[in-house]
Amino acid sequence: MNKDRKLIIAGNWKMHKTAAEALDLIVGLKRELAAIKEVDLVVCPPFTALGAVSAEVLDSNLRLGAQNVSEHNGGAYTGEISALMLKEFSVRYVILGHSERRQYQGESNELVSRKALATHAAALKPIVCIGETLDERQANRTETVLETQLKGSLAGLTKDQMEETVLAYEPVWAIGTGQTATAEQAQSAHAFIRKVLVSLFDESIAKRVRIQYGGSVKPSNARELMSQSDVDGALVGGASLEVRSFTDIVKHSI
After folding, report:
1. Please, which pLDDT band fits residue 177 given cuts at 50, 70 and 90?
2. Contacts of residue 138, Cβ cutoff 8 Å, sequence gap at least 6
3. Per-residue confidence at 175, pLDDT binned at 50, 70, 90?
């Protein structure tokens, strides 16, 4: 953990929780995490629960995130939601390029970069996800894949925009599988990502950008992962759906 970069822990609720269920969860999280000041805390419910959750977090230390956004500001794009629409709910962060969207919706690095630019244009902060598959790791292609994803997904961002962007390293083979990258594997990938940021932007930007780890983060492995010098937080999936497990991850990370 780098004391110059404040930890950021975000819960990606994915396609879980009705509005009523989301309300129950956020009330519990507010209660349990009210005293936490050392970590930026973000919750990312599904679109249909943003209204209910937004009203609850406005007076709290929790910030609201969305799980996706359109690259367009408006128009004839059925089923899409713009960054300006998200701002109505006091959304601060937007997850972009999650491996599930890359896999199931065919999102490309180029699309992710357009979404990142649209997110910044609305003064929201993107959480840009990157990560390799098991086949790519076994073929020793991890660094090549990460560099390609970074160059494509961050294309067009200014230095100022990059500084307001969060990255999330999520090895695809560790998402929802129960497998987790070792602390050493996570640190190695994060250090490489920072090295690429130096080449794409500069050293001062690379030092300031926060890089989360995501991939079966649990209370039992949070402390070791967060103790790595280049790991600046976590993007939590399944464990963010219960008050106790998410709270324990946060408290074990401090």
Report:
1. confident
2. none
3. confident
Q: Which two tokens stand for residue 134?
A: 């098991």
Marked catalytic residue, from 56, 71, 98, 120: 98
How many structural domains are present in the chain? Answer: 1
* Residue 252 a catalytic site member: no
- Contact status, residue 53 vs residue 27, Cβ threshold 8 Å: no
Quick: pLDDT tens for 101-150: 999 999 999 999 999 999 999 999 999 999 999 999 999 999 999 999 99
Task: State yes or no: is 98 an active-site residue.
Answer: yes
| 184-223 tens-digit pLDDT | 999 999 999 999 999 999 999 999 999 999 988 999 999 9
172 within a domain of the structure (yes/no) = yes
The CATH number of the domain holding residue 217 is: 3.20.20.70
Pairing of strands 233-236, 7-12: parallel
Q: Choosing from 56, 100, 132, 170, which is the catalytic residue?
A: 170
For residue 161, the enclosing domain spans 7-253
C-alpha–C-alpha distance, residues 119 and 139, integer Å: 34
